[in-house]
């Protein structure tokens, strides 16, 4: 299966914190819309390339057209890799889990990527679906009973 998204291959990792507005504009102009398999998406991420929703022109809210993935950023460092990947939502439904460019052993940062069967071209629906994923993640991340098998009655 192939998924609709955009990729920016002009930079690896993150822009520097002191990047100028002009540099951000060039970065946001450089996303290319494409269709990739899950393995190809993983390869783009491993290469340090940014991915985003499909846009017409510059990557910005007004140009958003569709998305076929949901990404949850886990930047607070409160959970280990093993804890995140053991969550039922992640274990059963995530396509890709990866550390981010700013992750360190002392403060792990990860992204969980869910690939959707169909592209979503309605921004309100996409926002609702994204927040639903985030809400389920938050409930599971803070209810550690989800990490254990259920008790027998």
From the structure above, extract its key features.
globular, 153 residues, alpha+beta, disordered C terminus, 4-stranded antiparallel beta sheet, single chain, 3-stranded antiparallel beta sheet
Describe the protein.
The protein has 153 residues and is of the alpha+beta class. The protein has five helices and seven strands. The strands form two sheets. The protein has a four-stranded antiparallel sheet, with helices on both faces. Strands 2-1-3 form a three-stranded antiparallel sheet, covered by helices on one side. It is globular and about 40 Å long. The relative contact order is 0.17. The C terminus is likely disordered.
List the helices and strands and how they pair.
Blueprint: E1 2-8, H1 21-29, E2 32-37, H2 38-46, E3 50-52, E4 54-55, E5 64-74, H3 81-86, H4 88-93, E6 96-99, E7 110-120, H5 123-142
Antiparallel strand pairs: 1-2, 1-3, 4-5, 5-7, 6-7
Summed up:
The protein has helices spanning 21-29, 38-46, 81-86, 88-93, 123-142, and strands spanning 2-8, 32-37, 50-52, 54-55, 64-74, 96-99, 110-120. The chain is α+β, with helices and mostly antiparallel strands and 153 residues long.
The arrangement of helices and strands along the chain is EHEHEEEHHEEH
Report the helical percentage.
Answer: 25-40%
Structural class: alpha+beta
Give me the count of strands: 7
Choose one word for the global shape. Answer: globular
For the biggest β-sheet, the strand order reads 4-5-7-6
Proportion in β-strands: 25-35%
Q: Helix tally?
A: 5
**Biggest sheet character:** 4 strands, antiparallel
Mean pLDDT: 88
Distance between the termini: 41 Å
Q: What are the segments in which pLDDT stays under 50 over at least 5 consecutive residues?
A: 144-153
| CA radius of gyration | 17 Å
């Amino acid at each position: 299966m192939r998924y609709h998204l955009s990729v920016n291959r002009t930079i690896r990792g993150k822009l520097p914190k002191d990047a100028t507005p002009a540099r951000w504009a060039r970065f946001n102009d450089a996303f290319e819309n494409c269709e990739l398999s899950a393995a190809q998406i993983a390869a783009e991420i491993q290469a340090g390339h940014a991915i985003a929703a499909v846009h017409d022109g510059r990557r910005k809210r007004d140009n958003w057209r569709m998305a076929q993935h949901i990404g949850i950023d886990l930047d607070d460092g409160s959970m280990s890799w093993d804890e995140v990947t053991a969550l039922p939502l992640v274990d059963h439904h995530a396509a890709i889990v990866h550390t981010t460019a700013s992750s360190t052993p002392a403060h792990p940062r990860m992204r969980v990527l869910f690939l959707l069967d169909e592209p979503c071209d309605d921004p309100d629906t996409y926002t609702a679906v994204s927040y639903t994923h985030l809400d389920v993640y938050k409930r599971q991340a803070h209810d550690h009973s989800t990490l254990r098998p259920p008790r027998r009655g």
